[in-house]
């Protein structure tokens, strides 16, 4: 909701001034930041507000309907919008962030991208690796970690979770037949992710729980490798929902026990305990904790 209000103010100012550049100057932002917020608003609401060309901007039919209300909002909230702009200008510096490569396609990466757009004076180094980073020893400012958090001197806070789907290739389903109960899957071939135990916890349609213990002849240290080998028909796995969504539509992968759900994996942001409260690291942590709007 807050993102929509800010974007509507920027939209109204863009229409009033006739360009992203002039709207940006009014709030002390860059034209790319203004354009990005309006584009994100259009994407979230599923409608175009502006026609863009190299020489001019023009309102769409939806844009004309929205502009009147947005203009009134801009007049009443312009001082607040300037406060947001000043806050964005204050955030400057460098930050390095380590995270599992599997998060690249997920909603947290979209949040990091939005942070980069909102804070153009921040230089960001992203380290996508499926190996756990020693953030103190390697001099990394912050890490995103998936799964349970062991006791540690590091600061940690939950920033979301990864929903997973139990899937296999159609050929494998044809070979073994459709399972009726979770226990049947213990005898199926699995693609094991090295950093996880050889087990999956499922929740049934009535809240009942089942644990599948399995053995596997194929083990990988990458979620993407697990996903690719599953598509190739070598075994079952439970990749993130966003990784397999298109495959489930095309039929390249099929769900197993769709009435059961795989327990979600929590995601934490971790950082050294001596990090200053107003540092870029803490600003990014707070940004990641904001509610993530669905596309």
UniProtKB/TrEMBL annotation:
UniProt KW keywords: DNA-binding, Transcription, Transcription regulation
GO BP term, pick one: DNA-templated transcription
One Pfam family named in its UniProt record: HTH_1
PROSITE patterns: HTH_LYSR (PS50931)
SUPFAM superfamilies in the record: Periplasmic binding protein-like II, Winged helix' DNA-binding domain
InterPro entries, alphabetized: LysR-type_TF_proteobact-type, LysR_HTH_N, LysR_subst-bd, WH-like_DNA-bd_sf, WH_DNA-bd_sf
One annotated GO molecular function: sequence-specific DNA binding
Coiled coil stretches, renumbered: none
Domain named HTH lysR-type: residues: 1-60
Family: Belongs to the LysR transcriptional regulatory family.
PANTHER family linked: HTH-TYPE TRANSCRIPTIONAL REGULATOR, TRANSCRIPTIONAL REGULATOR-RELATED
Name of this protein: LysR family transcriptional regulator
Organism: Sediminicurvatus halobius
């Amino acid at each position: 909701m807050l993102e929509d209000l800010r974007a509507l103010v920027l939209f109204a100012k863009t229409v009033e001034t006739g360009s992203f550049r002039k709207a940006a100057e009014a709030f002390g932002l860059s034209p790319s930041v203004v354009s990005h917020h309006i584009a994100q608003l259009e994407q979230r609401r599923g409608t175009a507000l502006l026609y863009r060309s190299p020489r001019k901007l023009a309102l769409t039919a939806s844009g004309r309907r929205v502009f009147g209300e947005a203009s009134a909002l801009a007049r009443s909230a312009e001082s607040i919008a300037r406060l947001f702009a000043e806050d964005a200008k204050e955030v400057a510096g460098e930050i390095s962030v380590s995270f599992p490569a599997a998060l690249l396609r997920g909603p947290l990466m979209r949040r990091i991208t939005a942070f980069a757009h909102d804070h153009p004076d921040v230089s960001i180094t992203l380290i996508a690796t499926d190996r756990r980073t020693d953030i103190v020893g390697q001099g990394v400012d912050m890490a995103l970690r998936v799964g349970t958090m062991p006791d540690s001197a590091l600061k940690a806070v939950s920033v979301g979770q990864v929903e997973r789907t139990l899937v296999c290739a159609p050929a494998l389903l044809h070979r073994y037949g459709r399972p009726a109960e979770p226990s049947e899957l213990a005898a199926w071939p699995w693609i094991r992710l090295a950093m996880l135990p050889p087990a999956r916890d499922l929740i049934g349609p009535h809240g009942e729980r089942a644990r599948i213990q399995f053995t596997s002849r194929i083990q990988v240290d990458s979620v993407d490798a697990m996903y690719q080998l599953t598509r190739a028909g070598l075994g079952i796995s439970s990749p993130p929902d966003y990784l397999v969504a298109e495959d489930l539509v095309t039929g390249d992968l099929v769900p197993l026990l769709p009435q059961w759900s795989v327990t979600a994996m929590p995601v934490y942001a971790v950082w050294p305990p001596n990090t200053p409260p107003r540092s870029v690291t803490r600003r990014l942590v707070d940004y990641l904790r904001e509610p993530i709007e669905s596309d």
